[in-house]
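Consider this pair:
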Amino acid sequence: MKGFRQRRARPFRRATDPITARRGGRCYCFPFWILLLIIFLSADTSTVFKPIPAGYIAKEEHFDPNGFQDYTDYCKYRYDSAKAFRRDARYHEITQDEIENVVGYFEDFERWMRTENRLDEYDFDLSYISAGDFLLLDTKEGSPEFFGDYAKYVNYTVYLFDTDTLTLYYIHNNI
């Protein structure tokens, strides 16, 4: 065909760039990725978010046996003192004004435990919540969801340390 120029084929050159590291037709990048995976899996996890302070003397954990994406968990951790919670900046002391909000989460949680026929695992009493207790609340309320924003009681995690019983109550609901 007239008018079209044929491109001349480039001769094969061995790549020497560090990304592909091909020499003689062999790829040496695969061991690099394996090494990177090993380093990642053996990384120090001490900096990972751990909301349950070390030092508890007893624990009772009830995880949802049918949970995959939607689940309801309840745990209790007993401590000798409240020292760990006073030092932990993630927890804050509950004020009288916050009690009603915290009670709302525990009431919603109890409804879900009743719905799942798991009230035999749940022994929390709302009277445990008082000013001076310590709270860490993690909720997706208001954050974007597929069909809008998360409602208040759709996905939440509450860590409540009761200073009277020296017990950390953990509830998580993702329904």
Q: What stands out?
A: Confidence is low (pLDDT under 50) at residues 44-48.
